[in-house]
Amino acid sequence: MEIAFRRCRGLCLLVNCLLLCLPAAAAGSEDIARLLRDGDTTAAWEQARMLAPERAGEPAFDMLYGLAAVRSGYPEHAVFAFERVVALEPGNHRARVELARAHYLAGNLNLASAEFERVLAINPPQRVRDNVHTFLDAIERRQASLSTRVTGYLELRAGTDSNVNSATSDDTLEIPALGTFTLNGASLDRSDEFVEKNAGLAVVHPLTRRHALFADLTYKDRENIETQAYDLRSVTLNAGPMLAVAGGRLRLPLNYQFLYLDNSKYRRLGSVGFDWTRDLGRRDQLQLFGQYGSLRYPDNAARNARLALGGAGWSHRFPDPDVQLSASTYVGDEATHDTVGEHNGKQYLGLRLGGQWTLTPHHSPYFSLAAQWSEHDARDPVFAPTREDEFAEARLGWAWTPADAWLWRIELAYTRNDSNISLYQYTRRQAFAGVTWRFN
Question: Which residues span the membrane (predicted)?
Answer without folding.
Answer: none
